[in-house]
Automatic annotation (TrEMBL):
InterPro entries: Extradiol_RC_dioxygenase (IPR052537), Glyas_Bleomycin-R_OHBP_Dase (IPR029068), Glyas_Fos-R_dOase_dom (IPR004360), VOC_core (IPR037523). SUPFAM superfamilies: Glyoxalase/Bleomycin resistance protein/Dihydroxybiphenyl dioxygenase. This is Ring-cleaving dioxygenase MhqA. Residues 5-131, 156-282 form the VOC domain. It comes from the Bacteria. Pfam families: Glyoxalase. PANTHER family: RING-CLEAVING DIOXYGENASE MHQA-RELATED (PTHR36110:SF4), RING-CLEAVING DIOXYGENASE MHQE-RELATED (PTHR36110). GO terms for molecular function: dioxygenase activity. Keywords: Dioxygenase, Oxidoreductase. The keyword Oxidoreductase applies. It comes from Lentibacillus kapialis.
Length: 325
């Protein structure tokens, strides 16, 4: 068994409408699913991705209206990368972010790749990363109706950064249990700290990496709006996920067991530093209950919740996501 790469990253927003505007109108991603948090159906779960929500392209958000401000620190998923096709695309993005008043650090090089670090309106820590030199896992395809040109748009998730005080237990889970391999390191982002270690899985490349940052100068993160809830890794199918469940249980790691999320099947567990990992199957996908042309335009409910539709819709703030025809 070998994990194929990053499946999705799920974060927290306090305002679904503002979140929808930023990720679709400014970043040009497609809302491929407007649904509910299946563990709390009183709030939205929004999925932004490529043209059809291919695995490895999904950045998702739980809406928690009363979420406080994130106090950033260790024991956290401290950075999410979004892939763009090449270095030239970053020039476009530098101009676009500036025009829209988005806080960013300009183009720089990190780990041999061109990047732009930036923040969303809720201080979500994001990075645009060039696929110019990528030889590993391929990205997705920009939606034809995106406001961003197809040759410049976001094509998937890139490396995810974890920040911990003690790297040993996280490293053990990544390499001894989850089949990641340590590939290289690069200088710390903060003076005086250890180098950032890069772990790769599957075909490798920008869509299949975890970057492990060691920080002994920070308190533990207190999550809120603008923080990341969990990172999910790609598993081929349910049969393989069952084998992963057996492996996780054999390692005596408390876990959720198999969970049916309708659009994919999952297993959740926390590594010893408290960071929540998910293993998720590639299918069946987001067109299971909606036509591809209409993805994300109406509230999609898994069958388990369909008989509660009226109640659920009454408790949600209206969010118009219908695309003009």
């Amino acid at each position: 068994m070998e994990l194929k790469g990053i499946h999705h990253v799920s974060a927290i927003t306090a305002n679904a409408a503002n979140n929808y505007h930023f990720y679709t109108r400014i970043l040009g991603m497609r809302l491929v699913k407007k649904t509910i948090n299946q563990d709390d159906p009183s709030v939205y779960h929004l999925f932004y991705a490529d043209e059809i929500g291919n695995p490895g392209t999904d950045l998702t958000f739980f809406e928690i209206p009363r979420a406080g401000t994130t106090n950033q620190g260790h024991s956290s998923i401290s950075g999410t990368s979004l892939r763009v096709p090449n270095d030239d695309a970053l020039g476009y993005w530098q101009r676009r972010l500036t025009e829209h008043g988005v806080i960013h650090d300009g183009i720089m090089e990190q780990d041999g790749r061109q990047i732009i670090n930036f923040r969303d309106p809720e201080n979500q820590r994001l990075t645009l990363i060039s696929d110019e030199s990528n030889t590993g896992l391929r990205g997705g395809k920009v939606w034809e109706h995106s406001p961003v040109p197809a040759d410049k748009g976001i094509i998937g998730l890139g490396p995810v950064r974890l920040t911990v005080q003690d790297p040993a237990p996280t490293t053990s889970v990544l390499t001894d249990i989850l089949t990641f391999r340590e590939a290289r390191s690069y200088p710390a982002l903060v003076s005086g700290q250890e180098a950032i270690r890069v772990f790769s899985t599957g075909e490798g490349g920008t869509g299949a990496e975890i970057h492990l940052e060691i920080r002994n100068d920070l308190p533990q993160e207190r999550p809120g709006r603008g923080s990341v809830h969990h990172v999910a890794f790609r598993v081929e199918n349910e049969d393989e996920l069952t084998k992963w469940k057996d492996r996780i249980q054999a390692e005596r790691l408390p876990n959720s067991g198999l969970v049916d999320r309708f659009y994919f099947k999952s297993l959740y567990f926390r590594e010893p530093n408290g960071i929540l990992f998910e293993l998720a199957t590639d299918g069946p996908g987001f067109s299971t209950d909606e036509n591809v042309d209409r993805l994300g335009e109406s509230l999609a409910l898994p069958p388990l919740f369909e008989d509660r539709r009226d109640e659920i819709e009454a408790n949600l703030n209206p969010l118009d996501t219908k695309r003009p025809r």
